[in-house]
Amino acid sequence: MATYKEIFGTNIEVLASDPANPVAGQVWYNSTDNVVKGAAATTAGAWATGGSLNTAHSALGYAGTQTASLAVAGENSTGIIAVTESYNGSAWTEVNDLNTARYWSRGGGTQTSALQAGGETFPYTAATESWNGTCWSEVNDLNTARTAFAGGGTDNTSSIVFAGRSNQPAPTANVTGLTESWNGTCWAEENDMNTTRKQNGGCGISTAALTFGGATPSAIALTESWNGTSWTEVGDLNTARFDIQGTGTYTLAVAFGGSLDPPTFANTEEWNGTSWSETTNLSIARDRHGATGTQTAALAFGGAPVPTAGTATEEWTGAGSPLIQTFTDS
Q1: Does residue 323 form part of some domain?
Q2: pLDDT one-digit tens code per residue, 308-318
Q3: Is 143 contained in some domain?
Q4: Same structural domain for residues 32 and 147?
Q5: Which of 39, 41, 78, 119 is the most buried (most CB within 10 A)?
Q6: Are residues 10 and 115 in the same domain?
Q7: Residues 137, 27: one domain?
Q8: Cα–Cα dist 60/80, whole Å
């Protein structure tokens, strides 16, 4: 029988700790744990419990990655809040508040460079704020005040927002497909979506975005892709719903939660650039929640119903993500 070295050209490494970025098929001996370990790739995604928010947030804004996120403002049993929290991969810490309390704001960015625009303050607002990692600063307003919309972006100099409700009170006629992009200084109106909607999910960047679900006012499964110039209808979600959230890119995304008011959904779907596929459900059904990260490493936090989902955080590990396994002799 061939030895491990004859097959792979090397002996099993002896390491004091697991390698930071192991590749599938790599094997090593962990001398601290006194066990042999190997790297594999997950075959199915899974949700795991993360650290709880300090304050319940529903209909909140958000930005960042699975291990470095912001939860921004929203509403809870106390009313509309301006509270901002920062996540380090295990716990949330309260940081400086938004200047204007609101819910259903949107934008994009990172834990240290983010943008939040619009939302509801009674009436709807066009106010935009920029985050520098320490505090929020007021910058130029949206062209159209709105709430219950979606957005995305890489930092506080480049974001996109789309759809929503554009005035108050809120009859069916005010559901919009308006799109605006941010260049770091001001918002510019872009081409409208094909289907107007509110309470939709979205992700991506100012030149390549995705929106899915929402209400017209009835729940829809329609998905549209943005190429920086125009929107194109693509494959529908498997389950129509609104108040859905998700994260990723316009070619690789994951969408989770949502509502038909009632019921509230735990459904999770993955987007491959062409179609959506049902995968492992959230542990807690929720809507109006936060969503950050990528298709293979996402975060879901807050949302409704409160208190069940209001402070709860879940971490998503998608199919194909690294998985370290310990070998036993049994």
Answers
A1: no
A2: 889 999 999 99
A3: yes
A4: no
A5: 119
A6: no
A7: no
A8: 10
Pairing of strands 201-205, 158-165: unpaired
Query: Which two structure tokens, joined as six digits, stand for 158?
Result: 């480049």
CA distance 224 to 222: 7
Count: domains in the chain: 2
Q: How far is residue 7 from each of residues 1, 25, 38, 116, 252, measured CA to CA in Å?
A: 10, 12, 16, 54, 35
Query: What is the Cβ-side half-sphere exposure of residue 330, based on CA atoms within 13 angstroms?
Result: 1
213 shares its domain with 73: yes
| pLDDT of amino acid 44 | 79
What tens digit of pLDDT does each residue of 83-94 get? 999 999 999 999
**Rg (alpha carbons) of the chain, rounded to whole number:** 21
Q: Domain for residue 325, yes or no?
A: no
User: Looking at the DSSP assignment, which residues form a beta bridge with residue 235?
Assistant: none
Q: Enumerate residue ranges in the chain where pLDDT < 50.
A: 171-172
Gap between the Cα atoms of 230 and 119, Å rounded: 24
Q: Phi and psi dihedrals of 8, rounded to 5? A: -105, -5
Q: 119, 120, 139, 136: which is closest to 128 by C-alpha?
A: 139
- Alpha-carbon gap, residue 85 to 78, rounded angstroms: 17
Residue among 151, 114, 152 nearest 134 (CA): 114
**For residue 219, what are the β-bridge partners?**
215
The three-class DSSP label of residue 38 is strand
Residue range 223-246, pLDDT digits in tens: 999 999 999 999 999 999 999 999
Q: Per the domain annotation, does 329 fall within a domain?
A: no
Structural domain boundaries enclosing 20:
4-41
